Amino acid sequence: MPPHPPLPPSRPSTWFAWQADRIFPGSRVLDLACGTGRHAIAAAQLGAEVVAVDRDLDSLTAARAFAGKAGLRVDWREADLEEGWPDWGTFDVVLLFNYLDRPRFPRVLDAVRPGGLLIAESFLTTQREQGWGPTADAHLLLPGELARLVAPFEIIHGREVAEPVDTERWRHVASICARNPAR
Which DSSP state fits 37? Predict the structure, then answer.
């Protein structure tokens, strides 16, 4: 019996899809806490040069297998973002989805080149009421907090919303696309 092809990661978030036209062929993209690579793979499909980082080796292995089968090049790196970060340089676009680490947020901003973009999304405190997702204060944003965390970046587009995930589940998220104004 032939081996099964690797399963694709779940689809990219709606927020990523809305911002995808900001990623161009040849853009350097960093996907932090990439998990199974849904956003890294989507950025690579757009022609970006992608570095994707996660500490979960199983997730990276699955992502690498799918990307390889699809003929996509992504530089998958195992690293614990709660430990010391290697110097990856700066990027045209930094992606940060469903990961919140307030003490290290300045490191995230430092990874965005001058004029580059941060595209981020994470759960709000009201997510607790949905009965799924993160529950710890450390992993949930307060209303308006994401905009404060990205300062002094210029907010291009942002939202705080409850949106359907499927027919029975909703997610409460804050999303932002912000530009590093440094010259």
Answer: -
